[in-house]
């Protein structure tokens, strides 16, 4: 099995991605967050520069199709700041889209994902490096099953990893039952996001035992009251032998959360989260989580 990390400037060996924010956003817009869009290219560049100054070298943008990815702007930002950027295809929950857009993609969602992974996003020429879809709160509705089925088809065609928004951190085992059980996606190609929002150590351990990746991706918004429990959860996974399955991200989704706007932003991951985790796990273990795990998790693999 061979693999590369597909960035907006081309393919890298997994080890070249370096210290990585494994789940974040440079651009995103949604009717669920009116007036809080990330759509300022200058602010995006400043945020990447701040992350680079803090020691970061890679960012995975999970913004999917139809949510203001601005893929055409990403190569210039990556080149100007020296930060590797990975861009997503995929589809979020139905609430984030106009009904007309969902109707447009209804008959060919897997084909859309494959096209963006292999040919490029629109006319930008930027190829996506992962597929992002979403579950619901403690359940999978028809929309989630449709998008995950399409993601599984695209994975089989391209070898791209599948990243999942878990609503409030819930539904992890239902997602694995569908994606890995019914649809046959290998567990090590699945990344579960937002696990920090539902600090159920038993479910997290079960998900790790299944062989998938576990992303603890916050804080970025003030209602994530479980962030303080994250170090204990990561320590429990590491103590159980699953430190090699953990990912860390910032998940900046509103403009006020950017560090350049006075929020925690991308640098917070390295400025505060990293030393807090080093106190629990030691520097060597945290270095692996930040600088080795993302390259393996986001590699596009082919036989």
TrEMBL record:
Residue ranges of coiled coil: none
PANTHER family, A to Z: PHOSPHOTRIESTERASE-RELATED, PHOSPHOTRIESTERASE-RELATED PROTEIN
Protein family according to the UniProt entry = Belongs to the metallo-dependent hydrolases superfamily. Phosphotriesterase family.
From the Swiss-Prot or TrEMBL record, give the protein name. Answer: Phosphotriesterase
**Which Pfam families does this UniProt record tie to the protein?**
PTE
Which residues are annotated as modified residue N6-carboxylysine in the UniProt record?
Answer: 132
Identify the InterPro entries for this entry.
Answer: Metal_Hydrolase, Phosphotriesterase
UniProt keyword annotation of Hydrolase present: yes
Arranged from A to Z, the UniProt key words for this protein are: Hydrolase, Metal-binding
Q: Does the keyword Ribosomal protein apply?
A: no
Top-level taxonomic group: Bacteria
Which source organism does the UniProt entry give? Streptomyces spinosisporus
């Amino acid at each position: 099995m061979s693999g590369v990390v597909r960035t907006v400037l081309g393919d890298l060996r997994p080890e070249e991605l370096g210290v990585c924010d494994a789940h974040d956003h440079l651009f995103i817009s949604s009717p669920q967050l009116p007036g809080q869009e990330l759509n300022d290219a200058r602010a995006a560049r400043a945020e990447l520069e701040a992350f680079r100054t803090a020691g970061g070298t890679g960012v995975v943008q999970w913004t999917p199709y139809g949510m203001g990815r601005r893929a055409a702007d990403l190569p210039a930002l990556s080149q100007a700041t020296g930060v590797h950027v990975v861009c997503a295809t995929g589809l979020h929950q139905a609430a984030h889209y106009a009904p007309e857009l969902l109707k447009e993609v209804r008959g060919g969602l897997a084909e859309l994902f494959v096209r963006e992974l292999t040919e490029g996003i629109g006319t930008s020429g930027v190829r996506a490096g992962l597929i992002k879809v979403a579950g619901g709160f403690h359940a999978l509705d028809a929309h989630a099953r449709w998008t995950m089925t399409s993601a599984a088809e695209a994975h089989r065609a391209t070898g791209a990893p599948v990243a999942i928004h878990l609503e409030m951190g819930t539904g992890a085992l239902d997602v694995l039952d569908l994606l890995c059980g019914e649809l046959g996606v290998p567990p090590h190609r699945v990344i579960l996001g937002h696990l920090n929002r539902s600090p159920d150590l038993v479910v997290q351990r079960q998900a790790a035992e299944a062989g998938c990746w576990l992303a603890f991706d916050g804080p970025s918004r003030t209602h994530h009251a479980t962030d303080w429990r994250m170090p204990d959860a990561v320590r429990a996974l590491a103590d159980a032998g699953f430190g090699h399955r953990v990912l860390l991200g910032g998940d900046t989704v509103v403009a006020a959360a950017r560090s350049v706007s006075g929020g925690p932003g991308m640098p917070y991951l390295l400025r505060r989260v990293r030393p807090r985790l080093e106190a629990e796990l030691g520097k060597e273990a945290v270095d692996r989580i930040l600088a080795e795990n993302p390259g393996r998790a986001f590699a596009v693999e082919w036989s």
